[in-house]
Amino acid sequence: MFSEKIYQDMDFTGAILQEDVLEDIVFTRCSFREADMTDLVIRRCRFDHCLFFSAGLNGISVSNSAFLNCDFQFADLFAADFTDCKMTGSLFSNTDCATVGIFGGDWSYTDLSHQDFRKRKLENIDFSYSNLAETDFTGATFKNCQLDFADLRGTILEQCDFRESVLSNIDVTAARWKNAKIHFDQAEVFALAFGVQCY
Q: pTM for the full model?
């Protein structure tokens, strides 16, 4: 189906992708609405302003690819893996990401609100400016992650471990932090937020 390296304004709605692997292809403003992409392997591809509304993406394995300002609403992402991907500005509302594997990458400006990420091991991920409102991270470990200016309204961060991540430029009063682990140097962020003086 994909014999070219660049596709623009194409409609693949309802398509059944027969390929096993997609490599080094650029898609711009393309629609994969309700397309079946089950178990597809995607490497070094770029999707810009593409629509994956209600697409079947279960079991896909994506690496070193970019999904910029893409819409994944109502997509099936069961057991999907994203490794070192750039997801900037993409929308995952009304999508169940509970079994999605996130292994590094740039997830800044994404909408990951109302998700279930309990007990995840999150490493080398940039969540800056992302919408994490009402998402449950209970028991998760954040290692070398960035949360600058992320929306944490109602976010559950209880029992999380942040000792190897950066906690700056966030509203700590908006989230739930019970029994979270932080480094001593990070305590200043909480002290300032609650008007407490440290000596």
A: 0.91
